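Supplementary Note 3. Input sequence used for the single-chain structure prediction.
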Amino acid sequence: MKKILIILSLFIAGLNVQAITVEEAVAKAKKLFANETPMTIPAFSVTDLNGNVHNKESVKGKYLIVNFWATWCPPCVKEIPLLVDYYEKNKDQVEIIGMDYESADKKSIQTFLDSFMVNYPIIAFDDNAPMFDVFGNVYGMPTTYIYGPKGDLVDFVMGEVEKDFLQKAIPTSKF
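The predicted structure, written as discrete structure tokens, is reproduced below.
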């Protein structure tokens, strides 16, 4: 009797399960994620590996790309050359801040960055941990937010940044 009740319970529960596509799951996650993301640039102040301070005032009038990444994350590493090239061509209108979301010594991080010739500011987690939460929760890496020159959230992506995403979010981009 007990087995029959268990099987019946599983069968009834199975009737209530709704299959969804990957696209639907991503859309639902993006909707939930959007509710937790600040819609304007939050008050922040971070110090990069070179000792330079970056804050809401220092990026005023430019697009701000906040990229959460880590050295151990394959898609993060894959997107670095695109971000380096993009920053080189667009630094007059865009500021990129790379938020290295891992606990690592600065020398190791700098060696890694030098191998990719990273030309935008990198913020180490160990020195700036409280500021890593002000942009919203990071559920996966890489995660990138793009804010407009007036401070409004233009777009965000969980996953690797691609050229089309940057072009759509910042129409005046040069490639």
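The chain has one domain: 40-169. The longest helix spans residues 74-90.
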